[in-house]
Amino acid sequence: MHDRELSEKITTVEQHILERQRAHPTASGNFSWLLSGILLATRIISANVRRAGFMDILGATGGENVQGELVQKLDILANETIKSCLGYRGNVGIMVSEEDDEPRIIKEPDEQAKYIVLFDPLDGSSNIDVNVSIGTIFSILQRRDDLEPGADMVMDHILQPGFKQIAAGYVVYGSSTVMAYTTGDGVHMFTLDPSIGAYRLAQENVQMPEQGKTYSINEAYRANFPEGIQKYLEWIKTDEAGGYGLRYIGSLVADFHRTLLKGGVFLYPPTTKSPAGKLRLLYEANPLAMIAEQAGGVATDGAQRILEKVPTSLHERTPLIIGSKNDVKRVASFWKR
Ligand code: AHG
Ligand code: MN
Ligand code: MN
Prior knowledge:
Blueprint: H1 3-7, H2 13-23, H3 29-50, E1 60-64, E2 70-72, H4 73-87, E3 92-97, E4 104-105, E5 115-123, E6 134-142, H5 155-158, E7 167-173, E8 177-182, E9 187-193, E10 198-203, E11 214-216, H6 227-235, E12 245-246, H7 252-262, E13 265-268, E14 279-280, H8 281-294, E15 298-300, E16 317-318, E17 320-323, H9 325-334
Parallel strand pairs: 3-5, 11-12, 11-13
Antiparallel strand pairs: 1-2, 3-4, 5-6, 6-7, 7-8, 8-9, 9-10, 13-17, 14-16, 15-17
Helix pairs in contact: 2-3, 3-4
The site of one manganese (II) ion has 4 residues, from strand 5.
């Protein structure tokens, strides 16, 4: 390697957390050990996504998950990979996965096993077989220390509102594998460098533009959206709106990643088929809402801030309007839930 390449500073995620934890003692070394488990899992998933065509892991398993959706083989691989990488970290008490009906209790949360990790192991499953970007989304809570005797020592630790998250992040398996995370101290982005098998710091303190030029929604459901959303969809196409484009990948994490970097708004409103919306609160909306807000954006369900919603069930769905401040405000001027 040339001297320049050798001297080029490589900041890995672990280094980044250690550097920042000096400034923010709350993020303990314990936490970076937990995050490194998640990142190991995403490196394994990324490797499998990239050679899915050569292995018998494309296609559906023929089974259905708790969501009533066709399970793709890569969904299972991703789910099992994350659980095995996190299961033996020693500091995780409970894991909640989109793919599992019930929480996986490693041990009842205590001073050691104080983290609860919630995740969508593979987001955008319908895109796996057609080589379109997919991703992994994760949310990290800490055990509650205010539970009264007799409380449900599993669900009460899990069903916390999103503002209680101590960290959130996602990975997009796209033209490159990109990871974004926040511990409440800004959003930081890394790119996986396959030549060294590590995520390298690409951008610190990512800021979402106050306004974008893109709206992102599945217009096929237009007739099934609330009237206010239909009015917004008419307005956004007028000259007054000023030349918005429509982009919809069908992988939330990829649509969100574009919105974070370029601005604009992603909408999955209620439909007649899914009156509570399709996206899941605990491991899709909450983690992305934390990232959006940390980057200066907003996330609502049409009535309230996503992060203030108190969950009542594990796989609870929510409408999601997320993106640039001005764009989400514009949607709200047409539709309030
Ligand atoms: P998942 O693959 O984890 O079930 O998530 C799929 C979600 C989300 O990624 C995407 O935004 C949405 O489904 C697309 O839904 P429609 O096909 O109804 O537009
Ligand atoms: Mn998903
Ligand atoms: Mn999924």
